[in-house]
Design goal:
With 340 residues, the protein is mainly alpha-helical. The chain is 68% helix and 7% strand. It has a two-stranded antiparallel sheet. It starts with a helix and ends in a 14-residue tail after the last helix.
């Protein structure tokens, strides 16, 4: 029982990333009808928002520390981060330590701005073009973005550690008499993902803006005839989808150190998640994300990889084939979507 629960938990953190990226993909496809192959790059850019803030907070200046000397007795030069000089060593040190969570604050406006610029500058010109054209242009954009990141940050993964208070593991099964030691940050990532997903669904379900967007997804022309500028609202949704992907990347950095190709690593799998869940179905994207993450976790166990070598690499695609053969629209797909 301990091992089973541990594998479920292991699948939840990767499933959380799949669900968040797939949610953004489905938001864009459901509102704009665009197959956005640059969405993985938005996930990557979010992770590098955390890297950038961490580097900015680590900028330092040199001072002479008379209390410390080298072997010749000369005073040593000590580097002091600017934030520690401004706010003191305790507060400044805490700000540096909590760089990743603080990155969420700056990542939201940055990712919304990137999403808005992407939609207004490029995507809007491909609304009425075939999906193949949309895939080609957004895939090309993803390559451009990843090469820009590679130029400025290099090709090697960059460590973005979580706060010291959230390091280590916790026995989450102690209350039930089980020994399940699990990393604290992975639990934080899962809870963060649930909060973001709940926020997006609440926004769409309970706000006037969200209700208009849902109506536009169902019948764009009728909403337009009512005098509502649905295009502006859909552009806002593109920015929201970019922010969701970016926040997923920000918080995933301590789990998997950011690198320039991490967006591509998640992109194909996230599209499989969207297809399995059902094109245009937000609940389907979230359900499929968590489900496939857990399946991938079980397929990565020693027993599974020994019994069927390589099963952890193909399990998601096998499930996709089975689902599409038995239910072509996906688990929760809507009639008529991608069927023309």
């Amino acid at each position: 029982m301990d091992a089973i629960l541990l594998q479920i938990l292991n699948g939840l953190d990767k499933g959380s990333a799949y669900a968040l990226i797939a949610l953004g993909l489905t938001l864009i496809f459901g509102t704009l009808g665009v197959v956005n192959f640059a969405h993985g790059a938005l996930f990557m850019l979010g992770a590098f928002c955390a890297v950038t803030l961490q580097r900015l907070l680590s900028l330092s200046y040199e001072t002479i520390d008379e209390t410390k000397t080298d072997f010749l007795g000369n005073p040593l030069k000590v580097k002091t981060p600017y934030v520690e000089g401004w706010f003191g060593p305790e507060v400044g040190g805490a700000i540096i330590d909590w760089a990743v969570p603080l990155s969420v604050i700056i990542a939201i406006p940055i990712m919304v701005g990137i999403g808005y610029a992407m939609e207004r500058g490029l995507i809007k010109h491909f609304y009425k073009r075939p999906h193949a054209d949309q895939i080609l242009v957004t895939f090309g954009l993803a390559i451009v973005l990843q090469e820009i990141v590679k130029y400025f940050f290099g090709a090697n993964p960059i460590q973005t550690p979580p706060p010291d208070a959230l390091l280590g593991v916790v026995n989450i099964g102690a209350a039930f008499g089980l020994e399940i030691a699990y990393p604290i940050w992975r639990m934080v990532y899962f809870l963060f993902s649930v909060a973001i997903i709940g926020g997006v669904f609440s926004f769409l379900q309970f706000t006037t803006f969200g209700m208009v967007v849902r109506a536009g997804m169902a019948d764009r022309e009728t909403v337009g005839l009512l005098g509502i500028d649905i295009d502006k609202r859909f552009t806002t949704m593109f920015g929201l989808a970019a922010a969701v992907a970016g926040l997923a990347g920000v918080m995933y950095g301590p789990i998997n150190p950011p690198n320039y190709h991490m967006g591509m690593d998640f992109l194909v799998l996230s599209f499989v998640v969207v297809v399995v869940g059902g094109m245009g179905s937000l609940p389907g994207a979230v359900l499929a994300g968590f489900m496939l993450g857990i399946l991938e976790s079980f397929a990565s166990t020693t027993w599974a990889t020994t019994t069927i070598p390589g099963i952890n690499q193909i399990i998601i695609y096998l499930v996709a084939i089975i689902v599409l053969l038995t239910r072509p629209r996906g688990l929760m797909g809507r009639k008529g979507v991608m069927e023309d």
